[in-house]
Design a protein that fits this description.
The complex is a heterodimer of chains A (684) and B (296).
Chain A lengths: L6 E12 L2 E13 L4 E5 L6 H8 L7 E10 L2 E2 L5 H7 L4 E4 L3 H4 L6 H12 L4 H14 L5 H5 L8 H13 L5 E5 L7 H18 L2 E6 L2 H7 L2 E6 L2 E7 H6 L4 H8 L52 E2 L7 E2 L28 E14 L9 E14 L3 E5 L6 H9 L6 E6 L2 E2 L10 H6 E4 L3 H4 L6 H13 L3 H14 L16 H13 L5 E5 L7 H18 L2 E6 L2 H7 L2 E6 L2 E7 H4 L6 H9 L40 H5 L4 E3 L5 E3 L4 H7 L8
Parallel strand pairs in A: 3-8, 3-9, 6-7, 7-8, 15-20, 15-21, 18-19, 19-20
Antiparallel strand pairs in A: 1-2, 1-4, 4-5, 9-10, 10-12, 11-12, 13-14, 13-16, 16-17, 21-22, 22-24, 23-24
Helix pairs in contact in A: 4-5, 5-7, 7-8, 8-21, 15-16, 15-17, 16-17, 17-18
Chain B lengths: L1 H28 L4 H18 L1 H4 L32 H37 L1 H16 L2 H12 L3 H27 L3 H8 L4 H9 L4 H24 L11 H8 L7 H31 L1
Classes of the chains: A alpha/beta (684), B mainly alpha (296).
């Protein structure tokens, strides 16, 4: 090698010293990042990818320590540097972008000031020069009206704009290395797409190397030229991105790709294949391959007897895998297992009807604040959930999908319109006032696995209380039913005595599903039940929901922001924007042209786990109007790339119904929409 | 209906059993915080002194040893000396610990119970109930409490029970404020929504779903309030509206002897030190508990 690598991990071993002992999070990591290169590190939570980022910045904290090996930056050992030297490198030579932009920005300083501070500190230049550079950077990250932007405070910006400011702050000093730790995870899919495009573009212009850390294979595929797959603190596979995606050689990489719902898969064509088992504890590591106990290809003793080295493939020396069977595994093909999803034929019976539902609430300003603004969370929504089917409601944050779910569940009540449950009106009845049989009929699964179960009570108590309250079952009978319910969600009966903190996220979500089933619910409203879970766990929960529906004929109302999951799981889809349904219909019709312009933009923004996916992206400008605004015309008009003219703002768009039950609310005739579609969304 | 009641009671009962079982385990964690252990050490010392007062003292607390008055400073006969009436200070401290360690915990227990109910109701129901309770608490908190104590105790007489009642009323708003804050946050948790979905009533949700998860701040606050209550009882004794004489009371001991400060400083300073040590004990236990709470 003639030119020196920019960043090198050499047998780096990192541990955290905690109450329970030494948690060896990174047992020995080797990788090299060259100048101008973009390396993506992917892995599920707890695989050590954030530790890598923190180690580069020497920010491991009191408990964390590099206990072996070296981290070289431009040939110099970071551990040997003094605090002064490190400070000079951070921000100047290595910059970092974190997941939550709000915690990276100082809320009491204007963004202009914060941007100017970086060159003022590192480059010994004057105010005027710093200001000039800051303005230039704001222009580069495509923020509108840089002069006005300089004077804003972080809270006046949207999440996407904040992240652009953070990226501008990172790049303003012209760092050699940009570390990005899940930079788009908290953002909506359309915003994420725009930020990823920006990163790609800036990379070419600024010639910084990027270490891009993400749990999402799609985002990595979009930005990086090399990928490293982490599992249990080890880089189990690394190589050029196309090569790894086309021919993954490590069973874990294959597992990840296999369990990922994509826009091209649905429940009728294939079953998702979750990776069995769980990640091992960093407190005790096996001698051999860390993945062996979950691997379908594992062979004793050669996988388990000794440490597995990372070896370069003969055919492609750039591509390395930490697997003894890397060369002998058959070429990768998506596992396609016969799916047993119900077919759509037959008479459709309505389980839940939503009739011109409105849910407004007043944002109060305290006792002396007066009336406050009206937030139109759900605005004139019309929907039917067919019995025994899955209705998915999809939309970005703030579109009102969770408020809709709350009205269905009775946690909130309607302002106007109604909800019918099995033909009975419940829209204006809070859950406390619903008759017992309706309480039983509809139950809910929540989003956050950490707050869905009460940390003070056991699993058995959580399910047992639901049985007692919903069905009046107590005593021994209840204990038996708790076990039966745990069995249905594929958890061992012993879990009844466990507390939530002893459970993983996926297990907690299973318990929550068991709890919802305790009263033999016909309708399950699931509000983002898998969005906080890792992909392999997500797959198993999706499979579980599918099975429950097939076996029990339950109706599922599935709220999600993830179009790939919706594509996979749903029978019917409704796309929500600003409290309204802009498009709804059978899943195949909604995911195929003609599209509503918003659906089209959403679909084009979904990051595909395929580096060659090169469909046109539609980048939405601006952010959605405030939900307090009264909108006469089309809610999407202010950002619509296909806006036809003043009519969009002036009058509400007509609902164009088609034979399949597919409806689009748009001023553009459906025939024209079909022709306009520019997005090459992969068809099933 | 009766069955339903029994089930309800059993469920709340088991929730509380779980609450205490988990805290039993947590007490094991105390050993990891030297700060908390130091606090526990001081508190346990005074509890043992109070408990075994007759065994570890030679003189009755109110007995006058006029022979000792010639030189009331600490000696072999009176290890901490005697006061101006020739009463053994160590005996008076030991028996005084009995009163302070009875009155303060009972008063604080009352304040915690009242504060929890008020705080839960305010945080859970919000609206006008919240406004009413928080405003009432604000009034009590903004009142010059010493004056309140003097008015109440001068009117109704200073007995242990009256002191307990007035201290309970004054300290409850502190606890209520803490509980309300936790409750406002916890009521938005999804498990509370899940409890509503299965038809639990508000009372059950507050006591079995929210309260157990607010225990951390409540326990820390209880320790702090115990310390401050001991000061309060001392102050009341000092002002002469504490527990009636001649039975020993730490604050009363300071009051009786502070006039002799320039001649016999040990008479009042030893009692002051006893009060401070117990207050410091509870305070550093609270600090230690907070440290442990932050760690996991």
């Amino acid at each position: 090698m003639t030119d020196q690598a920019l960043l090198q991990f050499q047998d780096t071993r990192i541990s955290y010293f905690i109450r329970a002992g030494e948690a060896n999070v990174i047992p020995g990591l080797n990788f090299t990042l060259g100048h101008n290169e973009a390396l993506g590190l992917v892995g599920e939570s707890g695989c050590g990818k954030s530790t890598v980022a923190l180690a580069i910045m020497s920010y491991l904290g009191r408990a964390g320590r590099v206990t072996g090996g070296r981290i070289l930056f431009e040939g110099r050992d970071l551990a040997a540097m003094s605090e002064d030297e490190l400070r000079r490198i951070r921000g100047k030579r290595i910059a970092m972008v974190y997941q939550d932009p709000m915690s990276s920005l100082n809320p009491v300083m204007t963004v202009g000031r914060q941007l100017m501070e970086v060159p003022l500190l590192h480059d010994a230049i004057g105010e005027d020069e710093a200001r000039r550079r800051a303005l230039h950077m704001l222009d580069e990250v495509k923020l509108p009206d840089p002069d006005a932007m300089m004077e804003r405070y972080p809270h006046q910006l949207s999440g996407g704009q904040q992240q652009r400011i953070v990226i501008a702050m990172a790049l303003i000093a012209g760092p050699a290395l940009l570390v990005m730790d899940e930079p788009t995870t908290g953002l909506d899919v359309t915003v994420e797409a725009a930020v990823l495009d920006l990163v790609r573009e800036l990379r070419q212009r600024h010639r910084s190397a990027i270490l891009f850390i993400s749990h999402n294979l799609g985002t990595v595929a979009h930005v990086c030229d090399r990928i490293g797959v982490m599992y249990g603190g080890e880089l189990v596979e690394q190589g050029p991105i196309r090569q790894v995606f086309a021919d993954p050689r490590h069973p874990y990489t294959r597992g990840l790709l296999d369990c990922l719902p994509t826009l091209g898969r649905d429940k009728r064509s294939s079953r998702l294949t979750p990776i069995p088992g769980q990640v091992g504890s960093p407190l005790s590591r096996p001698v051999g391959c860390g993945f062996a106990n979950r691997c379908a290809h594992a062979e004793s003793p050669r996988c388990t007897a000794q440490a597995i080295p990372s070896v370069a493939l003969k055919a492609a020396p750039e591509h390395r895998a930490m697997c003894v069977r890397a060369e002998e595994l058959p070429p990768f093909r998506r596992t396609v297992t016969a799916a047993d999803a119900p077919t759509l034929e037959g008479k459709i019976e309505s389980a839940v009807g939503v009739d011109r539902l409105k849910m407004f609430y007043r944002r109060s300003h305290g006792i002396f604040g007066g009336a406050g603004d009206v937030v139109r969370a759900v605005n004139d929504v019309e929907l039917v959930a067919a019995k025994g089917r899955t209705l998915a409601i999809v939309g970005e944050s703030g579109c009102g999908k969770s408020s809709l779910a709350k009205v269905l569940a009775g946690l909130e009540t309607a302002t106007d319109g109604d909800v019918t449950l099995g033909g009975r009106s419940v829209g204006h009845t809070a859950i406390e006032n619903r008759p017992a049989d309706l309480k039983r009929k509809l139950q809910m699964v929540f989003q956050n696995p950490d707050s869905t179960l009460n940390p003070s009570h056991t699993v058995g108590y959580a399910i047992g209380r639901a049985l007692a309250r919903l069905k009046g079952v107590t005593g021994t009978a209840a204990r038996q039913q708790v076990e039966r319910l745990l069995e249905i969600v594929k958890l061992p009966a012993a879990f009844a005595n466990h507390h939530p903190h002893q459970l993983s996220g996926g297990q907690k979500q299973r318990v929550a599903i068991a709890r919802a089933l305790a009263g033999d619910a016909d309708v399950i409203v699931a509000d983002e039940p898998v969005s906080a879970l890792d992909v392999s766990v997500q797959a198993s929960i999706i499979n579980l929901l599918n099975e429950l529906q097939t076996e029990r004929g339950a109706t599922l109302i599935f709220i999600s922001h993830d179009l790939a999951v919706v594509r996979y799981l749903a029978d019917q889809v409704a796309v929500m924007y600003l409290g309204r349904i802009v498009e709804a219909g059978p899943v195949d019709a909604v995911f195929r042209p003609p599209f509503h312009p918003y659906t089209e933009a959403l679909l084009s923004a979904v990051p595909q786990p395929d580096p060659d996916a090169s469909h046109a992206r539609i980048v939405l400008e601006g952010s959605p109007p405030a939900p307090t605004e009264e909108i006469v015309g089309c809610p999407f008009a202010s950002r619509c790339p296909r806006k036809v003219g003043p009519i969009c703002d002036a009058s509400p768009p007509p609902e164009q119904m088609q034979a399949s039950g597919h409806r689009i609310a748009c001023h553009i005739p459906v025939a024209d929409l079909a022709r306009l579609n520019a997005v090459g969304v992969p068809a099933v | 209906m009766a069955l339903q009641q029994t089930i309800e009671t059993a469920a709340i009962g088991s929730a509380f059993a779980a609450f205490f079982a988990r805290w039993g385990r947590r007490i094991g964690l105390l050993r990891e915080s030297p700060t908390a252990m130091a606090g526990v050490g001081i508190i346990v010392f005074w509890c043992l002194v109070a408990l075994f007062a007759p065994l570890i003292t030679i003189y009755p607390p109110n007995a006058n040893d006029f022979a000792a008055l010639a030189d009331p400073t600490p000696s072999a006969a009176h290890i901490l000396g005697t006061d101006h009436l020739g009463r053994d200070i160590w005996s008076r401290l030991a028996y005084g610990a009995r009163t302070v360690l009875t009155v303060a915990p009972i008063a604080v227990a009352g304040a915690v119970a009242g504060g929890i109910l008020l705080g839960l109701a305010a945080g859970f129901y919000r609206g006008w109930i919240d406004i009413l309770i928080t405003r009432m608490c604000d009034i009590v908190l903004s009142f010059p409490v010493i004056i309140l104590y003097m008015i109440v105790l001068a009117t109704f007489g200073s007995s242990a029970i009256n002191i307990i009642m007035v201290v309970t009323a004054v300290k409850a708003p502190y606890i209520a404020r803490i509980v309300r804050g936790s409750c406002l946050e916890l009521r938005e948790r999804e498990y509370v929504a899940a409890a509503r979905m299965r038809g639990e009533n508000g009372f059950f949700i507050m006591l079995a779903e929210i309260l157990p998860n607010a225990r951390g701040p409540i326990i820390v606050e209880t320790c702090l309030r115990l310390g401050y209550t001991i000061i309060t009882i001392g102050v009341l004794g000092f002002l002469g509206i504490g527990l009636p004489p001649p039975d020993p009371d730490w604050g009363g001991m300071v009051k009786d002897t502070y006039g002799m400060m320039s001649v016999w400083p040990h008479m009042s300073l030893i009692s002051c030190a006893a009060i401070s040590s117990l207050v410091v004990g509870f305070n550093i236990l609270a600090v230690g508990l907070r440290e442990i709470g932050l760690r996991d």
